[in-house]
Amino acid sequence: MTHRIFLHGVPDTPTIWQPLIDRLGEPVSVPCLPGFCAPAPDGFGCSKDEYVQWLAQLLESRCEQDGPVDLVGHDWGALFTLRAASLRPELIRSWAICGAAIDPSYRGHLIARIWNTPMLGEIAMALSGKPAIESSFRRGGLPAGLARQEASAWTPHMRSAILRLYRSANGLRFEGDWVDRLDRLPKRGLVVWGALDPYVPLSVAERFAARHASKLHIEADAGHWQIVERAETVAEALLAHWRD
Hints:
This protein is an alpha/beta fold. It has a single domain, classed as Rossmann fold (3-Layer(aba) Sandwich), CATH 3.40.50. It has helices spanning about 20-25, 50-65, 75-85, 110-115, 120-125, 130-140, 145-150, 155-170, 175-180, 200-210, 225-230, 230-244; strands spanning about 5, 70-75, 90-100, 190-195, 215-220. Strand 4, helix 10 and strand 5 form a beta-alpha-beta unit. Helix 1 (about 20-25) crosses helix 12 and helix 2 crosses helix 3. The protein starts with a strand and ends with a helix.
């Protein structure tokens, strides 16, 4: 059976996938980004390229056991999915991204620009306690229990990892090889988006899907966490994607 890996984003943990996994009814792996569920290992700088290297090593291990994998990513997990799949397409049977895409025309949302700014990012992190993060998750469509659980992971080591990650990407501005190598993406791709996403507009998804001849699944009444808000229909889209 094909191995499936779901990779979370920022500021989430693997728990964010649970509503979707419950509806899929199939086993998947949900690794945690280094620095998010526990302090980052010694020597791991939490840069975008280090995360991709970590993911590529994980993919290699799974591919050796079960063959090419189905890789699914949300938010930063989607960006890492695209980068890893473009670098190592032989490890990927299919890919799917949710709520984020590598797009040189997209210049990042306001929070990304704040986190990218020295001192300002640190101040913003210091002022953002767990209650504020929980409220943000609730506004994003997460049910109370899941919002509370995700907010409980808003720790100093996660906040540090996030600042280093965003600064390694100049906020969310991608160029050079990260963009150019997308032409090597495996052909079997799916783009999942919430039309009401306040962070990354639907136009990014439409542009990416058209440019890379990928299927596009839009949840009209969902926002950035469409994988939670519309878990049932997103699960159906993934199952169909894997069958095709």
